[in-house]
Amino acid sequence: MALRVAIIGSGPTGIYTLKGLIGKSEPLEITIFESDAEPGKGTPYRPDLNDAAMLSNIASIELPPICETLTEWLRRQTDMELQHLGVERDAISEREFYPRVVLGEFLHAQFQQLLNAATANGHAIHLKARHRVADIELRADDIRLSVKALDDEPAEFGFDHVVMATGHDWPETTEVRPGYFISPWPAPLLKTIPPCNLGILGTSLSGIDALITVSTAHGAFMLDGLGDLQYEPLPGTEAFRATMMSRKGVLPEADFYCEIPYRPLTFCTEAAIENAIATRKLDLLDAIFDLFKQELVACDPDYAASIGLSLLTVETIAPAYFRARETNDPFAWAARNLAEADLNKKLKQTVEWRYAILRMHEVIAKAIPHLDADDLKRFHKHFKTVFIDDYATVPHESIRRLLALHRTGKLEIVALGNSSEIDNKSVERGAVVRTEGRELRFEAFIDATGQHELSARDIPFPTLVGQGVVRKAATKAAFSLDGAEQEIVRTGGIDLDDDFRLVFEDNLSNNLYCGSIAFLLHKLPFVQGITSARDIGEVISKAILKSNAPPLIIAQA
């Protein structure tokens, strides 16, 4: 009897898991449950949730191939299909950023190819669109799913392995009070915001996308006679003004050119990190920081000197890293940074300090699950933001749009500092933001701070929760100098093994895999994006195939 595998969700994580399962192995029976009507696009890339102006934050060259690369797929589309996607054939490039909906169409096409390949390789595939998994129950020999299709009564299915690949966790209702939106998605709802004073919490790409969506409802971005991007407001939209807010009040930097595949690191290597994990029990995070400093000095000594790196600690690196941007006008800084990034892209020139931090984040991530409770807290509070800012750069076009809006008098940036209050209850619409003696009133307000961490208590499957098998991630308490055995504390996220399976002691199936990004962020803080979906899918699919491999027979002499 073929092994029965269920994949909940057909976004990037589900797609890469499916890719890993459908090779020429023992036949599998794979059922894919997708709540949407069009499987294979993924929530962040669905056309009904996104505006055509929303850009993806991953260049084509960084997108892991599925059946083909994104550029290969684009180049074989007809001119009419490219026009529908809003892509110019001459502009197709490995270094280009495309709208989110383009990635959705690419993922959908790759998903269909995988389904065909699976059938050709002898696997049985059952695709169930518009089916929402309502509950999960672990049993001794299998896993029960309760699945609801549209208005039908829930039906029950049994599986040997189940993969939770539900991806982003976005609320079903976003305008929770008049003019107050707790998410930029679904984007079409933002088009209903009238010309008014708009507040946006968050300056990352999510916030930029929200702003651009509203802006294109009240005007258009056009090239002038010199080829510069300008914003042209529509008549009657004079009241439209936007304020983007964040704690630091800085904009993300423009995507920077770098060599791909990555050059090897010299000091902050996987071997050095593994050695630190094995030998530096009392001060693992500080040992990692020492490796970080050594690598940064070696790669870009001038930058290291400019921020005083030799005297910095885990607690002081972020203020030094952000100081120049925080003390300059955000739009002046953005204009200079964009010019630098444009030139470097043309010259294929790498800014070494940025490239070093980018490469190090993937290596340092391997040590985060090994930090004790105190160091894990220190990492999240102080050190993590440096890496996230470095890799969360945005398309050049996004910066050009922000500058165009600012030149037209439609956009400003506000730094909220460490203490601010958002009040949406004392006003009929929108919100009031109070910070450091200043009060800002907005007739519409969008929280665009992105995907938040979820923990064990947020699991949406009541029977699974009731079984007591979902627990917060286990973290060792801070080491004591007297050598006493460390106790285990539960700090957040979900307790998973190296194959993303739940960790528990009960005599139940342990073949439930959690590949849902929001539950992984606590111990794997950099697992956002399609490359992470590929990595998670590969690990889970290998674990499933390993369980299905025929037993090894050793011939007797």
UniProtKB/TrEMBL annotation:
Domain of life according to the entry: Bacteria
Any single Pfam family the record assigns to this protein: NAD_binding_9
Coiled-coil boundaries: none
Stretches assigned to the FAD-dependent urate hydroxylase HpyO/Asp monooxygenase CreE-like FAD/NAD(P)-binding domain: 6-168
Protein name from the UniProt record: Putative NAD(P)/FAD-binding protein YdhS
Organism: Rhizobium soli
